[in-house]
Amino acid sequence: MFFAKLFDRRWRHPVLVPLFFLALALVFRVFSFVAAVIDTDEGLYMLQAREWLDGGWPIAAVWDMHPVGAPAIFAVVMAIFGDGIWVLRALGAVCVAATATALFSAVRYAGGPPALGLAAGVLYVAHSGLLGGLATNTEILFAPLVGWAMALGLRGAVDTLERNKAPRWRDMVVMGVLIGFALTLKPVTFFEGALAWLLLVGPAYRAGLLGLRNIAAMAGAYALICAAPTLAFGAAYALRGEFHIFLEGAFLAPLRYAGARLSAADSFRFAVVAALLLLWAFLLSIPALVRPRNREGPLARLRQFGMIWFVAATFAVVLPGQFYQHYFLIWLLPLSVLAAIGARQMARYMRPGMVVIGFQVLIAAVALDAWRVAALPRLDRGIGLGAPDPVRRTAAAVRAEIDPGDPIWVVNYHPVVYVLADASVSTRYAFPAHLAGPFYRVTGIDSYAEINRILESHPRVLVIDRGWWPSVRRRAALLIEAALDEQYELVATVPEERGPIEIWRLR
Fold this sequence. Notes:
By secondary structure, this protein is mainly alpha-helical. The protein has helices spanning 2-6, 16-28, 40-53, 69-81, 85-109, 114-127, 138-163, 169-183, 190-206, 212-239, 243-259, 264-277, 279-289, 298-318, 332-347, 355-381, 390-399, 416-420, 432-435, 447-456, 474-487; strands spanning 407-410, 424-425, 461-465, 488-494, 501-506.
């Protein structure tokens, strides 16, 4: 087998597998380096990181209803490599490679062959470009943390089942740190974090290697370690006198957001769309679950692991109640493991001499099809590939009208324009949907009072996306239109797919 030969004992160096996955991620995600915007959230984290590097902390300087982990990572990377779009997309490729390596390690910890681990990693890398995953969003950022925690939990379970070894506190501490930082990215990682701990201690408890007192001590320690990064951020905000702001953005606002759940019909529809985008991965998983050949041993263990992991991932997807496509990226980790097992099962039905090549062809075909689905819209739109990038053109038009650091208001367009145009924010509610758009209730403020305050501060430039203007609430739209008529002049328009982007300059 090609994979087995490539990664045999002569080549099994600790960095070979991660480098292989990194090279593959850069190839499969090459189109992520072209467009300035793939997902609007990514630009918000970038803006928060820029303000943080300038002394204004996330939520306080630029508001969001997520914990501060994503802008923290962005700030570190931007401080080292600069604020280019390519920097953040390269970060995404590194995270994808790290996640694929975690899946490879999980398969190996369970006793699976290297080729199966490589197949799981390849499937994850290929599918990570779907569902908005080409953007370096929270699901891409926390995937390696969750993946490695699950791999360590599985290793602990295998040690107990095969070697009668009790869980190591060291593994639990590492898992707690990983999940702790994942929780600062998105609280939904709680489910997978809990499953990782259960994998570590559950078999040991059943085998009589841990008593209830030990379980209670490990549970308390694990919970404290997981909470430590969030508690540290909270303490840092408290020292600045901004704990109430941290509490509001990181905890209370997400609860309000989750309370405005979609209908059951819409939720089901969005889940079906995500499943269709991942169709071949789901189809490959069927042979792993229906009449499997291996009912004992490593493959049976991995199959059970993948199934319970998928259930935990589904809870994480469902919890916010909104079903945006990038939420379903959480499915990819367990689904890649199950699909790799299914491909191996299918290959075994081929005639002797074709099993190895059949397995390779199945994995390659599914991976290439996932890449095709992700690449076609990018090639069709052609942004940065011959067609102009409207976000960069908008930023250039704004930059032509202001001095660096002048305040502007991007009313209902991408917040990354603030960064690309080197403009300052005129409101901490820089994400369009949080102020003039449909999610204004999550902020807990009087949005109309804030809009009036912004307009009375006379930002140098206002950016209006006419294509999305109908999604601006009527009263907010009337306030903004009145200000445009009285105080601003239209100086540039940039074509967008939905309609023109207007740049209005203060008279």
